[in-house]
Amino acid sequence: MSTEQDKLLYAKINLETAQIPWKELERFFAGGMVISVDENVDMIQVAQWMASDDVAAISCMLEKKRYRR
C-alpha cells in the first residue's frame, strides 16, 4: 500500500513529465542516459522507484526484461 509520501512523489513526478521533441532527448539518448520501458509499464512509477532508490522494484522490472536501453 502506498504511503502519503509515495503518493505525493508520484504526483510531483507526474507534474514534471511532458512530451518533448526528439531533438531535446537526442543528446541524452546519445549519452546512454535513456531507458525505455514496455508500453504496459507505468513510466511515472518507474521514475518514482528510481527517485526513491527502490532497488527491489527496479530489480524485479529488470529481471522481467520490461525495459530497453
Kindly describe this structure.
By secondary structure, this protein is mostly helical. The protein has one domain. The chain contains four helices and two strands. A two-stranded antiparallel sheet has the order 1-2. Helix 1 (4-15) packs across helix 3. It comes from Oxalobacter aliiformigenes. This is DUF2288 family protein.
Q: For the largest beta sheet, what order do the strands appear in spatially?
A: 1-2
Strand content: 5-15%
**SSE topology string:** HHEHHE
SS content category: mainly alpha
| Overall 3D form | globular
Radius of gyration: 13 Å
Helix coverage percent: 55-70%
Number of domains: 1
Write down how many β-strands occur, each being a DSSP E stretch of 2 or more residues: 2
> What is the overall number of helices?
4
Mean pLDDT: 89
Weakly predicted, low-confidence segments: none
> Describe the biggest sheet?
2 strands, antiparallel
Summarize this structure as a short list of keywords or feature phrases:
69 residues, two-stranded antiparallel ribbon, single chain
